Amino acid sequence: MMAMVFFLFLFSGAAKFALSHYEINEYDFDRGSFSAKGFDELAKDSDGVVLYLGASSGMERMIGQWCTYRRYRLETAYDAKEQYTLVLIDGASLEEEDVDLLFQFQQNHIPMVFGSLPSVKLIESDAKLASLLGISNIQQSAIDLDGMTLYEDFLVGGKVIYQAKNKEEQKQQDLNLRIPWLVLNSGSKVYMDGILPEDYEDTDAAYKPPVIWCYRTASDTVFAVNNNFMESDIGLGMLYAMERELSTYYVYPVVNTQNLVALNYPSFTDENSKKLHEVYSRDAAAVLRDLVWPGIAAVSEHNHAYPSVCMSPKYNYDVTAEPDGEKLAYYQQLLREQHGEAGISMETVGDISLEEKLAYDNRFYRKNASDYRLLFAYAKDYDAADAAMALDAAGFSDMIALLCDYDPSKNMIDAVDGKQVLQITNTGSSHTYSEDLRTKSFQTALGYSVIGQDFSEILYPTSKADQWEKVYDRFSRYTNTYWQDYDYFDETTVTEAARRCNRYMQLDYDIVTDADTIQIHSDATKENPAYFMVHTGTESIRSIRGGSYVRIDRGRYLVTAKDATVSIRCREKSQLTFWR
Predict the structure, then answer these.
(1) Which residue among 407, 445, 526, 552 is buried most deeply as judged by most CB within 10 Å?
(2) Best CA proximity match to 117, nearest among 223, 235, 244, 239
(3) Are 458 and 525 in a shared domain?
(4) Phi and psi (nearest 5°) for 92?
(5) DSSP bridge pairs for 452
(6) pLDDT, tens only, 534-575
(7) Structural domain total, the chain
C-alpha cells in the first residue's frame, strides 16, 4: 500500500512537471502590435498650458515630468496672452518685484501652487502676499519638528504619521524637520502638518505648523508647500492630489501595475564556495535554492505577487567554473508554479565587457532555454539607449523592456529604441520616510510600483548585513508591511507591466462630465483594457457601464475601462473635510 502511495506521489509530481509547460514564457505575446515610443515621439494634443516661475532645479524637472503625464505644455516665461491651466511657483526664488504678477493670476482666477515658500522676511514685509498664501501670522521663523502627519484622502495609501519613536524608526527618519512655523487663516485646508516637540504639547491643534495646505477664497485657489518635497519626485503625486481639488470630478489614466523583482537571481555557477560554507554551510546552488527561493516565494504569496527574476549565468565572470544548465530548468518550473517570469541581468562583475557578458549569456540561454522567450532585462544604471543597443547587438532580439535603477533625472516610465523603460521605485530592504512619501506619490500619479531586491550580495557577503537572514528580515518586513496599502492595484510581472506602461503612454482618451455623470471615451476593449483614477469629490459611484471599479478611499476609485465608452453615475454622500 505504501509503495502504491509513494508511486502515486512521484507520478503526480512528474505529471505536474510535464504539464506545466515551464519551458515556455506564459507572458509571451504577439509583438507585432507592440510599438514602444518615447514621450518625445508621441504627438499628443496639449490638454492645457502650465506656467512655471522659478529657478531651473529639481522642481522644474519634476513639474516637467508631471506635465508630460498630464499632457500639458510647460512654459517658463510669462505671456499675458496665454490662458494658463495652472501656475507653479518656486517661492524660494521669488523677489519683491515679482509679487505683483501673482495678483494678476489671482484676478484672472488662475490656480497657483507654491512649490516652496517665499522667504520669511518677504512674507513678513508684504501683508498682501501673506494673505494670498492664507497666512495670518508667523509664529516662529523656524522650528524643529518632532515629525509630520500626512492626512488621508490626499495621497493614495491613507494617513501616515512620520515620527521616529525608537532607534529603528530613527534610521527611517530622513525628512526635513526644520520649517517656518506659520499660522493660517480660517478656511485653510491642511493636508499635512508638523508634530511639535513635547515642550509644545499644550498647543492648540489648530496652530500646529502647516506643511501642505490649500487656501481658497471666492476668487482664487492657492496651494502651498512648506518643505522641500517639490524638489523631488515626491511632488509628482502631490500635484495630482492638488489638481483634484479644482473640480467636482477629476479623471486621469494610470498604469495599474505592482511588481516584485529579484535582481541578479538566480545564477547557475558554483562560486565563492569557501566563504559560503563558512557563512551558510552550503554551496552557491544550495544557498539560492534552499534559502533564497523559499523567501522570495513566501513574500510573493503573502502579497499575491507574481515574481519576476533577472537571471545571470554567473555573478563573477572571473570564475572559471561553467554554469549548470539543468539548474535553469529547475527555476523555470518554480517560476511557472508561482506564475512568475524570468528575464536577464546585464550587471557585470569581473574582467569582462558588457558586450562579452551578453554574448556569453546568450549562448547559455540558447543552449539551455531556447524555447523560453526572454522579454526583459535589468539594465541597472546603464544608459537605456546604450543598453538597448547592446542587447540587440548580442542577439537578444525579443526584448521589449528595460528595468533600470531609480534615477530622479529621468521619467519614471518612458521608451527608447523600441523598448519600454521602467524604473525601480524601491529596494526591498530600505524604506525611509522620504521613500514612503515617494512611493505614495508614484502610486497616486501612476498606480505604479516596482520593488527590486538585489540578491547578489547573498553569495558575496562583506558584512553580516549582507547575509541572508538580515537581508530577508528587511526584505520581508518592508515589503509585507508597506505594500499592503496598495492592494487595489494589480500585481504583474515585468512584461505585463511594460505592456501596461506602453498602453498608458499611447492611450487616446477623452473625459466628459455632466451633472452626476462621468463619461470616459477611449480605445479600450475587454481584451485590451485601460485604467483610470476617478475622483468623485463628495459623491460616490452609483453605477457603471462599460467597465468596473474598485474603491480606493473616500471619493477615489480605480476604474477599469473595458469598452470604448464608460459611463459612471454618481450620487451625493456626506461631506467630511479637514478645513481649519
Answers:
(1) 445
(2) 223
(3) no
(4) -65, -25
(5) 261
(6) 999 989 999 999 999 999 999 999 999 999 999 999 987 644
(7) 3
The CATH number of the domain holding residue 534 is 2.60.40
Q: Is 517 helix (H, G, I), strand (E, B) or coil?
A: strand
Alpha helices in 108-164 (DSSP H): 120-125, 127-133
559 close to 544: Cβ distance less than 8 angstroms: yes
Helix (H, G, I), strand (E, B) or coil at 67: helix
- Phi and psi torsions of 572, nearest 5°: -70, 145
Give yes or no: residues 387 and 535 share one domain.
no
Strands 413-416 and 419-423 turn out to be antiparallel
Q: How many Cβ atoms sit within 10 Å of the Cβ of residue 290?
A: 11
Q: Degrees (nearest 5) of the Cα angle 23, 28, 29?
A: 150
In Å, how far from its chain's centre is CA 102?
A: 33
Let me know how long the chain is: 580
Q: How far apart are CA 452 and CA 215, in angstroms?
A: 39
- Quick one: 209 and 336 in the same domain? no
Query: Each residue of 496-537: pLDDT tens digit?
Result: 999 999 999 999 999 999 989 999 999 999 999 999 999 999
Contact 444, 237 (CB under 8 A): yes
Asked if 573 and 536 touch (Cβ cutoff 8 Å), the reply is no
Residue 465 half-sphere exposure toward CB, CA atoms < 13 A: 2
Which structural domain range is residue 340 located in? 257-501
Write down which residue in 225, 254, 283 finishes a domain.
254
Any domain includes 14 = no
Coil vs helix vs strand at 288: helix
Query: Which residues does 42 contact at the CB level (< 8 Å), separation at least 6?
Result: 505, 506
DSSP state of 21: -
What is the grid cell recorded at 305?
A: 505577487
Task: Using the structure block, give the residue that is written with the C-alpha cell 512655523.
Answer: 181
In this structure, the answer to whether residues 434 and 541 fall within a common structural domain is no
Report the C-alpha gap between 192 and 348 in whole angstroms.
Answer: 44
How far apart CA 210 and CA 220 sit, in angstroms, is: 20
Task: Let me know whether 482 and 517 are in one domain.
Answer: no
Q: Which position has the grid cell 546585464?
A: 346
Coil vs helix vs strand at 138: strand
**Is there a domain that residue 267 lies in?**
yes
The sign of the torsion formed by the CA atoms of 542, 547, 550, 556 equals negative
3-class DSSP assignment, residue 472: helix
Q: Which of 42, 84, 47 is nearest to 67 (CA)?
A: 47
C-alpha cell at 135: 497666512
pLDDT at residue 43, as a whole number? 61
